[in-house]
Amino acid sequence: MTNLRRLAAATTLLAAVAACSSTVAGKGSFNGSGTPTASASGTDTPTATPSATSSDAGRSSLSCSGGTVLQPKSAPYCYLLPAGFKDVSSLTSTTVGQTGEHPSSVALAGETITPAVRDLIIVLDFTLRLDTDNLSDDQLVQQLNTLITQFESQGFTFESRTPERSTVDGARGFGYHAKAREGYSSDIVFAFRGKQEVEVNCQYKVHQADIQRACGQIMSTVQIVSPS
Length: 228
Description:
This protein is 14% helix and 30% strand. It is built from two helices and 14 strands, in the order E-E-E-E-E-E-E-E-H-E-E-E-E-E-H-E.
């Protein structure tokens, strides 16, 4: 089957860059906005499963409050800045592969952002071609398996192809743990609501406990809306 958004080549989740900024590498997975294309095999788009339903009906608007709110302009998500962290979205740029429509990123407040930094949390969003509320969990996992295969070809090792299932703001979430050959790790959650996908990538090399604590705070405060 073709993907909900086109697969694109990716190297690392965080790539080395010139000058003083860091580059958060994008990833290929489901196809976002733009003209759909067929996969190399020429197979069809996944067929909806009538019995499949999402975790909830979703929300009509975003209402993050109670702290410093991060919401890129026009983004379908928002979350609160974790304690002890700073917004580094303006210091990073998504380049390799598909980069998301409204990326944001945070780092430890005392961290100087350089090409060597691997301890970051990156949030990306994609508008999808299909309403994922009509797809079963198994169908979504099948799509994510295609993404995992691509990551493995780029030097990532996944702890398991069976995701940890959760709810993210009531939406269905699928979590994986991966390790890059460069030595850093990533805890990645893919959340689906309607035609919206939001990915939270918590990557660490030195500050695992801090990143995982902050990741938990983001996961508990993030809000997601789907295009109408």
